[in-house]
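Supplementary Note 3. Input sequence used for the single-chain structure prediction.
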Amino acid sequence: MNDIIRYIIPVGIVLIQGAMGWVLWSLRREFLSRSEWAAEKSQLAEKQGELERRITETEHSLARVPGLPAVHELDLGVQALRGEIKALEVKVCGVRELLGRFVTVVERQEEYLKYGRVEK
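The predicted structure, written as discrete structure tokens, is reproduced below.
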């Protein structure tokens, strides 16, 4: 029995050491090393800096955008201009009609002065 124990103990120790080596090797593969962590941390810091810069630029751009009261005031101004343009369109149509009548009168006068007669 002593011979069996003397034979099993070294084999058991080798197996335990092998298992411990495998566990340590697996842990090393599972977790980051310090150099890998430092590289990853610097990349994350660069990305964070870039995002903060972009957010700052966006905030500055949005600060220049007119607010709701200014947009409302512009909308009211545009609507007032639309009304004025429609009124001018009506006036221009009236002037066009009057000009047509005036052209007819002038043509009749030219006919009369040229030929001494009026065409009807």
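The first helix runs from residue 2 to 30. The radius of gyration is 48 Å.
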